[in-house]
Amino acid sequence: MTDNPAGTDTPAKEPQVAPAERGRTTIADGVVEKIAGMAARDVMGVHAMGGGLARTFGAVRDRVPGGGKSVARGVKAEVGEVQTALDLEIVVEYGVAIADVARAVRENVIAAVERMTGLEVVEVNIAVSDVKLPDEEEEETTPRIQ
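Now predict its structure.
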């Protein structure tokens, strides 16, 4: 006598788990921060990311050989298993409608992060820390010493 409802002597097979569901994927905060930083910089009207102090330290780091530009500057992410929340600090160009730039940044960041990571973006907080005036000098980008 068998316990198998089909009436055969073969044991019942366990249901097969799809390959995509075998294991877990984790995404580091820094990955989400880089994606968000790139997406925010793509929006017209965004001059820079980060506050004055972060930009100053970033400019110094950019001059150090191997330091490279930090695309995550001005971005802070909190990443969970299925959701993420972001805080961005931006500098806008003088003359742009700040509310429109913030809305465009939020939309672009959410679209990029959700598309690339599969995480649900629950909020994107934007702090406008400065306005780049037309007559302000740019940060020095070339090293003084060769």
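The mean pLDDT is 83.
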